């Protein structure tokens, strides 16, 4: 009923009934059934039952997984041709690795699907409606357009409805609009837009005070709440920078592996080698090129990073978001509940003239009068209009007896939305006062004087001008200003108070201004400064008034102190801008967006992403959900945030502290740097794994490594050292550097050259040198064939494998720092690294001298003197890389 939604607010209550084909008695049962059939139930679309299964199947479509599965099939085929090679064992190993990788990815997507369930739970299950003149409770899903909702204090509204009766009706629209100020609803017609109308009760919002009736005009996905739900559901989160880099790396390595494997397979066939030999050879090339342990190590590293973040009150739902947060260029922050504390607090009590702060007794007197025009219930837990509650809380802080003051209140006049004020009558020190509390422009016509200190000045243009100057000064600080005026009542004015409000509203004395704000969190300015130091831009996007947004942005350090209108934009201006126009404004420095809608928040995110920025969006309300999902990193508030926001986000701040984002960014940057380190480390061993196969196919020499031995490196000894590099602590300079550029990826040409053509080649040359040394020392001659069971061949393979394992220790130490040696950074503090070194040492020894392992790997012993030569490889690789760091201009992109 979108067409109805555009004009329903403009109608009088009588015409609303006619327009929606209902009546003040409510719908009949037959009408409800008919509308349920035509419009559908008041609920959200449920994802189809096969979606999870399809998502799981999708995980098997990436290049890495396909390559591992195809390799496993080839292994099974090769085992059928020649069972003696035990290739079926390798096939099962590769298949399990592919399955685990797919399962980890599936779990992350499954978590994202829970967002819709949170949206459904946010709405109430049972609601009161009037049908056929009877008030009954029905399921929220059975509400239809034309139903007459009964609204009472504490109710959650279940559908968009036009108010037709209202008695002091106050609602909290913050979950939908993001604004902290409650909204007074009336039954009269409105000329405003639907979302800004004060006669519309929106689904998902809560009744704070009062009662009323409202006719439903939109249900389910047609409600404003439903549109956000649908928008959030339809948005597909873009892949994180790490996902993009991982996909790129997988594609590159897959192309290299398949190309080399197929080329040499065809070469083997042309030269007359047996089919199974060529298959085994092709498998060796593929397995040697593909670092099977890399993706599981990614997952483990990210998981450890998420645990470290959790200790800093940053809960990560999606592991890729750990690194994505470190890549952020822009943080788009909501105001209410994110930068501010999401509670109204009285911060200023000023004299109307000259803006003098009131003394403590004057504050007590002023607030006591304000309490007369307030409606606050409860003692330990105060309830009512948030403004009235703020007045009562401030009185309690100042030591006033709240109950005694309440007993002095004779009558309360409910807040009138058209008059924009409330009133009350109170007895103070034996004198009776009529008190008015409201907007200054609503009170000023009734003023006859303004109190300044103990004197009063007769109202004239100059006096009013001075009061307005004070008012503007307070508003410029981002304060919501409430004026308080009163007059002493004569004895003749003791009649029926309720019928005399209009008569009493005259000859008032303006006694003070009350400044109220949603205070800025104290940690925010320092956190914003750290963001700027780290090269991260901070944008404020809020539904609040421009003046309020601008004041908060200045206090937070998002905007400079000097006033520059170009730095702020309203939703009305943004609505008419194209994406190109918005990008231009962002380039010009616009940093604050006020009075924005959820769609406009997404528009800003889209423009920033078009500028090649990695975007983080913070928020806590239902209205933030679509933008949270559209951003590269969605960050929700854990304490005051809604379930919808938390489920749509990837990261949750457990303490709702903006400053925790900075700690998370530092951890995220560290995670990416560490991933780069262990990627470099793992790829180095690919060189000595590939080189034996190239020599084997090109020259009449034995194969120095078999596939099982390669897997013992990739899935065995390299895992713990890789995890150790993933656990390295943050560098103190991490947050003094700008975010990395998009082109500073994971797998770059300099990294490939460093891994394969420098360190990998060194490992290959030294390990193959010892391999051929053992062979020639044992009597082997060039071109001579050796059986796999030959003890000499087994010993030569053993020393080649053992040498690679030991040289990886030198590689491990060198990867700790880009420009330092790796020995000067507290190596003994990283216990996992020490464990990794121990494992490599023990495994290198066991490869040669432990019979059970010798049998599995098909290796044999060598003289201890040759084993000691293998140890020299540690010094060779570590020293060569250290000399490169000191004297060569060659640098990794990650440096």
TrEMBL record:
Q: Which UniProt keywords apply?
A: ATP-binding, Cell membrane, Membrane, Nucleotide-binding, Translocase, Transmembrane, Transmembrane helix
What range(s) does the Cation-transporting P-type ATPase N-terminal domain occupy?
Answer: 7-80
SUPFAM superfamilies in UniProt: Calcium ATPase, transduction domain A (SSF81653), Calcium ATPase, transmembrane domain M (SSF81665), HAD-like (SSF56784)
Localization, per the record, is:
Cell membrane
Task: Read off the SMART domains from this record.
Answer: Cation_ATPase_N (SM00831)
Q: Which GO cellular component terms are attached?
A: plasma membrane
Name the chain's protein: P-type ATPase, translocating
* Species of origin: Desulfobacter postgatei 2ac9
